[in-house]
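Forwarding the complex inputs:
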Amino acid sequence: MDEFSRLSLHVPEPAVRPGGQPDFSNVKIPKAGSVPRPEVDVAPEEIRDLAFSIIRVLNRDGEAVGPWAGLLSDEELLTGLRHMMTLRAFDARMLMAQRQGKTSFYMQHLGEEAVSCAFRRALRKGDMNFPTYRQAGLLIADDYPMVEMMNQIFSNESDPCHGRQLPVMYTSKEHGFFTISGNLATQYVQAVGWAMASAIKNDTRIAAGWIGDGSTAESDFHSALVFASTYRAPVILNIVNNQWAISTFQGIARGGSGTFAARGLGFGIPALRVDGNDYLAVYAVARWAAERARRNLGPTLIEYVTYRVGAHSTSDDPSAYRPKTESEAWPLGDPVLRLKKHLIVRGAWSEERHAQAEAEIMDEVIQAQKQAESHGTLHAGGKPSVRDIFEGVYAEMPPHIRRQRQKAGY
Amino acid sequence: MARMTMIEAVRSAMDVSMARDENVVVFGEDVGYFGGVFRCTQGLQAKYGKTRCFDAPISESGIVGTAIGMAAYGLKPCVEIQFADYMYPAYDQITQEAARIRYRSNGDFTCPIVLRMPTGGGIFGGQTHSQSPEALFTHVCGLKVIVPSNPYDAKGLLISAIEDPDPVMFLEPKRLYNGPFDGHHERAVTPWSKHELGDVPEGHYTIPIGKAEIRRKGSAVTVVAYGTMVHVALAAAEETGIDAEVIDLRSLLPLDLDTIVQSVTKTGRCVVVHEATLTSGFGAELVSLVQEHCFYHLEAPVIRVTGWDTPYPHAQEWDYFPGPARVGRALTEVMEA
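Prediction (whole assembly, two chains):
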């Protein structure tokens, strides 16, 4: 008889499935203000703990506490609140527009608004993001016109992408938003390349790459870390851990690494985890990383611990794979409500003003939607020209595409 | 005018381009200090510094992905994939990203990168150092695909590729790196220094992308070839005595269809030759186009001479390789049809 028994495969499973009681006991949450704030030139090996903890600023009472607090004025926080509320209202309207058949597809940010909205405020004009499909907050917080976003979603005659891209795959060089790909993780290593170029040219601009927890399993994630570490690229490598990659829980991609942030440690990259539902914490950590990059100290890896409250996309049904009440049990709360509470505690905001702002913002979004719809929606009104199919494949149209365009009658 | 090998011509193209444009950067595996396994980049780091010519980690997807990011910034990366066979880990970045960034962003972002890669067999490279993957790229809209057949073209086309606003796949037939080749492996290679196309200007010049060249005038049959196979086709024409017109495509995408159509319309016969495997190879596209545009002028079915539908073997390399004997038999066959 052999001393070893037969092997068996370990397939991780989430703590609960539909019908069960939500359980986040595995998410270890330190007290707000308890995680130290190191100097930006700290040696990565001295802050290994930050890859396993969670940096938090807002406590349960709505107070900003600890060494990462105190960076933003009331006015800046009110602007941040407004950005998150705008993104939420925008999502609500576009989700409805998809249900009404005005577009084919939409992806909402519900629960994750703080991540991109706060991050954008830590960047400067000229910096470049290489985002995924769930960072529209980068555009909202940079005052990119909502009408343009909606034109893109509706693939109408004013769509900046001329009807070629799936809805929400925006592009804006001017607003530091690289054209979105549907192929996962490709943009992560491109961000490193952009940052390397900035360093090669002795520029002052920095780049930010974005990835979801599930996509960290892609090889380009690892390529990006190799290149960023090797050349000390001025790049911020963001991982948005919203717990779910469509229906697959974060434990599948994470494997035995403990946290996603911990993956940076093997590359010698400073790695931090932050409460992704805490606008102040996200901003503070993003600013810390941006300063490191600007001081030529190289890359930083940040894991945003958050929760995808909504479906992955309009084609997804989360009730099929997780308890319906799971989002309510998420222990880090709602980013909008937490910042609202903080501002009320500070005496800079009130329930009445919040309700009024909500109405005003929704009105702005509706006005933008009306304007966008006047240019058409996917199945009605103005459309990009069929000629646009053939344009822009190359800088100059080669003969074979010209022949095909003529064959199509354009 | 200097006499150059194709390696020297490729190096000269990068040198001239780096001197003219500070945004041109060269990187890839072993290309910096060492100068590349084929020495194509030798001396460039010493001349331009290690931030303009540098070694990369062994990560083809990382190399191409970072090049795309650099291009989005405004640089013009000219990167080396050590062998075309190693391109596959970067296939996603090449075909889904580089090729489409202009289109999907409506020109908001562009991707002026050049991916150089040694291609083809004939150096006993076995099945992992001999592939000809051009058809995988010609199927991708947004890319340009170039295969030079001599030092003069290699330099002029590579400078054009570096100056091109779109992503260019630059496939360098490694069998031609040191001299032209007539398909007979047992015979010594004629050095490029004894060949007129080894005369290469030291300075800047370009050859337009998308223009073929007629290497041998003829009236009986048209041979369409590129890269190493141009030389094999020329040898086959000489050895059979058949009055073949040999077209060197130089650029596969975009393709100079007019030159092919004019020639086949004149000769009425056509043989397509490439080193890559037969099934769904680029020859299939060429034969389709000839059929579509020259059908009423054809006096014989169009024949393809290609590598076999197997991986490239090591010991039996010369039985795999489409040499002058196989091309000669095809020429005889179309003439007798």
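Chain A touches chain B through 46 residues (CB under 8 Å).
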